[in-house]
Design a protein that fits this description.
The complex is a heterodimer of chains A (476) and B (295). With 476 residues, chain A is α+β, with helices and mostly antiparallel strands. Chain A has helices spanning 26-32, 43-56, 86-99, 112-121, 147-155, 161-164, 169-176, 178-188, 217-238, 270-282, 324-335, 429-432, and strands at 64-67, 71-74, 204-214, 240-251, 256-267, 294-306, 340-345, 355-359, 385-397, 404-409, 412-425, 439-446, 451-457, 468-474. Chain A is built from twelve helices and 14 strands. Chain B has helices at 3-12, 14-21, 31-36, 57-75, 86-92, 97-103, 118-128, 150-163, 267-272; strands at residues 25-26, 41-42, 46-51, 79-84, 94-95, 110-113, 134-142, 166-172, 183-190, 206-214, 220-227, 232-235. Chain B has a nine-stranded mixed β-sheet with strand order 6-4-7-8-3-9-10-11-12, with helices on both faces. The chains are: A alpha+beta (476), B alpha/beta (295).
């Protein structure tokens, strides 16, 4: 529903001849052509498809961004010669998009603004570098202006960019606002505009195109090994190793699949890189759908670090593939890096907030949790197990601040024979608010020998509500 | 023989390998236990620690971490990989790094693996058992899952023998089950030893270890104390040692019914698990730790 009516948002190329136009009410259109085939608009599906096309365009350049809701913007600086020049690139892109069943309008120019206008309103797709002439005959809509502004300019007889460009700037700004000249400058290359890429551009990439699309898993593995070999000299040149890699498989029909792996330490060994991807493929819930085959395979280094250069260990005879870091990589590749974790500490006294876990691959050196004073051995005051959340227990305890005497946890009754406490942990008022209750922790030993960590949540009389008891941990 | 040829031979024949590495054992530091184990736990092997009920998980983890800490000190390998079956993680909760540190283990040396199911957990354990940097791999499971059967444990056992890391199964609220593990320990909580300085408080953690099954040595039950300060196990009572045979929980024959029924189970069964005791909470006098009683 647009402006309280169902309206046409897109139509077939020849529909204008029948009297249909955009933003027309569906009722009017139906009155013209009773047999009109109407499909409801699906903006989300359209955006998803556009995203897919954008990812597919990654085969031309790593800098691909979305342009509004109906376009894809490619930064092909320095890439065009790989495809035989700009005209050849555009022709090839058009042929491949047409082959996938899309109708595309293409434009290639010096600036983002010019390319935008050229693609939507231009006749020839490629503008020669440094020459704004092809832009001049385009209508003002090609400048990405507000429709109301275009209408008012048109009333003054300014119909093309060519009319607007030689006019004095100051009166235009006073009359129509800064936006008009900003857009004009962006189109003519006098103003800055940046492309925000959909995917972060990789540090290094290696790719391999196939004349015959590959389908077999063996072929994919072999190409991964080949690409890894190709990456090594570049990494060596930079004295770096790869921490995160991404593999992108471009299917003939335009679908792109990507797999990523992370490593616990910088990698430069092609065998280990291919082994990681092998594990990753085995661990996939759904197999790679090769369809009619992949015609381009791209291996990119997403994150790299300085290579320490001590991977080989000839003395101990322990192979690299057996080391702890290699194990972490294998586990992470198969299970997913977020399932292999290490502890990190946090600066708080609330037990459940005082620690967390992060994937080991993102655990930078020095951020690991520090042991509590290695030299000074503290008395045991913290349990080995912390329950996922404190479990409420029915407790008999002396009011107001006595230790628990009898309690019932998970349907079993216990009699406390020895207790230690309380250890008071105040609430964090800056996070939970001033009304959050205080916790008084007790170590409790039951008659059977079980040792629990319990707390009274709140203080009698001094804090609101009746305090409740919780069991929070189990000691050895 | 050329060292490389020897290593290939070792890899080909696990039996020869086992004979070569049979010396590597982890003594627990308690004469009685180490005698029963013929010198200690075999390091390159699979061992099982069982907590009969969910609330025993604290004591079971207590034994487990004690073993790992001693293992790290002995072998110089300083990493622990903890693989949790998703079914087990819900009941026990999370390992608490502060608690680990106070128990004597640096939490930074612990790597947690949380696979999606037991199959991948087994794969991860299997993969980790090969790693020469790990002191131990712990597989934490809940109950007696079907997938963790004799074949799966045998596989873990072989991996441990070739890899050299100790593989430990922590079975939470599970029953006895025949596996390929070298030893199976049942661990139950026990009232702590009184603290000398603060007698009213809670002392060092004490637990009763029952060696339910042992491939090479005898079985038995011992109360032990873990001392986090010196990182050693200590005897759980002042008496030097009670022979496990005597510490068997035998109900006294009453005077008027001398011919009472034998307890369920054969004689063999009793001898294999001499430390079996009455279920917790059954004793009217409140003294559950039978092993505490003198002869």
């Amino acid at each position: 529903m647009v402006k309280s009516a169902q309206r046409i948002v897109a139509h077939e190329p020849g529909a204008q001849a029948l009297g249909l136009f955009l933003d027309q009410k569906l009722g009017d259109a139906r009155a013209l052509i009773p047999t009109l085939d109407v499909q409801p608009a699906e903006p989300h599906a359209d955006m998803a498809l556009l995203g897919q096309i954008a990812r597919w365009c990654d085969r031309y350049t790593p800098m691909v961004g979305l342009s509004g809701t109906d376009g894809v913007m490619l930064d092909v600086s320095g890439c065009a010669h790989l495809f035989g020049g700009e005209a050849a690139l555009v022709a090839r892109l058009r042929a491949q998009l047409t082959g996938q069943g899309f109708t595309a309008r293409l434009g290639l120019a010096d600036t983002i603004g010019a390319a935008w206008g050229l693609a939507r309103f231009g006749e020839a797709p490629v503008a020669p570098p440094g020459d704004p002439a092809p832009l001049m005959p385009l209508p003002l809509e090609a400048l990405r202006l507000d429709p109301a502004l275009v209408t008012s300019l048109r009333r003054l007889g300014l119909k093309t960019i060519g009319c607007l460009a030689p006019l004095p700037r100051a009166p235009l700004t006073t009359r129509f606002g800064a936006d008009l000249l900003r857009r004009l400058d962006q189109a003519l290359g006098r103003g800055e505009e940046t492309l925000s890429p959909l995917l972060p551009p990789a540090d290094l990439t290696a790719e391999k195109a196939f004349f015959d699309p590959i389908t077999h898993a063996d072929d994919i593995e072999r190409s991964i090994a080949l690409l890894a070999h190709a990456l090594i000299p570049m990494l060596e040149q930079r004295d770096q190793g790869a921490r995160a890699l991404e593999l992108r498989l471009f299917r003939v029909d335009g679908a792109v699949q990507s797999l990523d792996v992370e490593a616990a330490n910088p990698l430069r060994d092609p065998a280990r890189i291919s082994a990681l991807f092998r594990q990753r493929i085995v661990g996939l819930a759904v197999d790679i759908d090769a369809g009619f085959g992949f015609d381009l395979v791209k291996l990119a280094v997403i994150r790299s670090e300085v290579f320490p250069g001590n991977q080989g260990d000839l003395v101990s005879g322990v192979e690299n593939a057996d080391r702890y870091e290699a194990l972490i990589d294998r586990l992470g590749a198969r299970l997913g890096p977020e399932r292999v974790r290490g502890f990190v500490g946090a600066d708080t006294h609330i037990p459940e907030r005082s620690f967390g876990t992060v994937p080991v691959t993102r655990l930078a050196a020095g951020t690991a949790i520090s042991p509590v004073g290695a030299a000074r051995v503290p008395p045991v005051t913290r349990p080995l197990w912390l329950l996922r959340r404190p479990e409420p227990v029915d407790t008999l305890a002396e009011v107001p601040d006595g230790p628990p005497q009898r309690f019932r946890w998970r349907k079993v009754g216990y009699v406390a024979t020895r207790t230690e406490g309380p250890e008071r942990i105040a609430c964090e008022w800056w996070r939970d608010g001033r009304a959050a209750p205080t916790r008084d922790y007790f170590r409790v030993e039951a008659r059977e020998g079980y040792r629990f960590w319990m707390f009274r949540h709140g203080l009698y009389a001094r804090e609101a509500g009746v305090p409740r008891w919780y069991l929070h941990g189990v000691f050895a | 023989m050329h060292p490389r040829a020897a290593s290939i031979l070792d890899r080909l024949s696990p039996h020869a390998h086992r004979a070569g590495k049979a010396a590597a054992r982890l003594p627990l530091g308690l004469a009685a236990l180490d005698t029963s184990l013929e010198g200690g736990l075999t390091i390159a092997a699979l061992h099982e620690v069982r907590a009969p009920a969910a609330r025993d998980i604290g004591a079971a983890a207590g034994l487990l971490f004690g073993l790992v800490i001693r293992l790290m000190a002995q072998t110089g390998r300083d990493r622990l990989l903890w693989v949790t079956d998703p079914a087990a993680g819900m009941d026990a909760g999370l390992l608490y790094p502060d608690g680990l540190a106070q128990y004597g283990l640096d939490p930074a040396r612990v790597t947690l693996v949380t696979p999606v199911d037991l199959q991948t957990a087994l794969w991860a354990t299997d993969e980790a058992a090969r790693c020469p940097d790990l002191a131990a791999v712990v597989l934490h499971v809940q109950g007696n899952p079907k997938r963790l059967d004799r074949v799966a444990t045998r596989r873990l056992m072989l991996r441990a023998q070739t890899g050299g890391a100790m593989v430990l199964i922590l079975r939470q609220s599970g029953g006895e089950e025949a596996t390929a593990a070298h030893t199976r320990w049942r661990v139950e909580a026990c009232p702590s030893a009184p603290d000398r300085i603060f007698p009213a408080g809670i002392g060092l953690p004490r637990m009763v270890l029952t060696l339910e099954r042992c491939r090479t040595g005898r079985t038995g039950a011992w109360p032990v104390i873990w001392n986090p300060k010196h990182k050693v196990f200590e005897h759980g009572q002042t008496e030097p040692h009670i022979d496990p045979q005597i510490s068997v929980d035998r109900p006294a024959a009453s005077a008027h019914r001398p011919d009472r029924a034998d307890p369920l189970g054969g004689v063999m069964d009793l001898r294999r698990t001499p430390g079996r005791r009455a279920p917790v909470g059954a004793g009217a006098d409140g003294q559950e730790c039978t092993a505490d009683r003198g002869p």
